[in-house]
Design goal:
The structure is a single chain. This protein folds into two domains: 145 residues, no CATH class; 90 residues, no CATH class. 58% of the residues lie in helices and 7% in strands. A hairpin with a 5-residue loop joins strand 1 and strand 2. Helix 2 crosses helix 4, helix 10 crosses helix 12 and helix 11 packs across helix 12.
């Protein structure tokens, strides 16, 4: 079954496309995580066994293994932005239904329901539900409104960023008409938005940063009639900011 992309709008009013992960990549991520959990449990057993009486060590290992098994996923989903080691290795991430990071409550719900998804044997029910769901969600995802997605890597765009011209060329003599349009058509609120965007770009996740800059850059490329195909969305945005704020150091600085 072909996975249906989900289109969402972030709080910054940026449209994103979320591509649900397929069953093969999700299974590969799960196997990596299960292997790590089992390895951690075995390590606990080997460490505690020689130090404590057998009955005590077994009870303690069982307790710690339970905490590890259930806490592992919650920890990585809430503190590592939805990427467990298995998901990181396979290029996946679990996100909120709106594309946002998971809350602790959402992670708790989706992981509590692993017990139901696991039935009757090794995620048999969860796997069946995910195959039937257009977005590949298991029961835990449906209950918590979460989605496991593929992380797109804009490698080609990164190469373009390194190879393109200086962003200040929008303000050079050959682009006086472009600079004039920028100064006359970009209003006060838009100027503050562009300045804030450039200053906060480094705090965004790479994919979110790329998508946001491409969308904003595409908007101004059209509305300001800027014919600069050599500039990516980010460098175009920073070039516009450099024209608007020539004395504000760092606003229009290119990202190296």
């Amino acid at each position: 079954m072909r996975r249906r992309e989900r289109r969402v709008v972030t709080p910054e009013l940026v449209g994103l496309r979320l591509t649900p992960a397929g069953p093969a990549s999700r299974l590969a991520a799960l196997l990596v995580d299960v292997t790590l959990i089992l390895a951690g449990t075995a390590a606990l057993d080997s460490l505690l066994g020689p130090l404590l009486p057998r009955a005590v060590s077994e009870a303690l290992v069982v307790t710690l293994a339970f905490v590890l098994q259930w806490g592992y996923h919650v920890y990585f989903e809430t503190w590592h932005r939805g990427r467990s080691p298995g998901k990181r290795a396979t290029g996946l991430r679990v996100v909120d239904g709106r594309g946002l990071p998971l809350t602790l409550q959402q992670s708790f719900v989706r992981n509590i329901l692993r017990a139901l998804d696991f039935l009757p044997l090794f995620y048999g029910l969860g796997g069946l539900v995910s195959l039937l769901d257009p977005e590949g969600r298991r029961l835990g995802d449906l209950a918590a409104d979460t989605l496991v997605v593929e992380e797109r890597k804009p490698a080609a765009s990164a190469e373009r960023l390194r190879a393109e011209r200086r962003i200040e060329d929008l303000a050079e003599a050959s682009n006086l008409e472009v600079a004039r349009r920028i100064r006359h058509r970009v209003g006060v609120e838009e100027r503050e938005f562009l300045a804030t965007l450039c200053q906060r770009a480094d705090r965004l996740e790479p994919q979110a940063r790329y998508d946001l800059m491409e969308q904003v850059g595409g908007y101004y490329r059209e509305t300001l009639e800027i014919d600069a195909p050599h500039l990516s969305g980010e460098n175009l945005v920073r070039g516009i900011a450099a024209v608007l704020f020539p004395a504000r150091e760092g606003v229009g600085s290119p990202r190296r």
